[in-house]
Amino acid sequence: QVQLVESGGGLVQPGGSLRLSCAASGFTFKNYAMRWYRRAPGQEREFVAHIPSAGGSSAGGRVSYAEFVKGRFTISRDNAKNTVYLQMSSLKPEDTAVYYCNARSTLNYWGQGTQVTVSS
Length: 120
Description:
The protein is mostly beta strands and 120 residues long. The chain is built from one helix and eleven strands. The longest helix has 5 residues, at 54-58.
């Protein structure tokens, strides 16, 4: 059974940091590119960050980010732990959203999301 379980969300003050984790199971994690998306209240889900699969990285694929998080967020993965991370710093109130991880290859899997609230 495929599972993507996000964790690490919570309430943080503006300027603060959080690290989100997404633990994967039920598929060959290293063969999947991983992404983070987010959905703010009343808005469409939007792309946040991408990290290629092991094969994609070897073929020259690179990490990419949405413009609004460049320089503040860092995506990484640990294939030995089947986990992808999103390190978020310099958080702003507009970063408030539910954050979802996504595994993509020939199939596409989604987690349930974790709430991030940036507020003083």
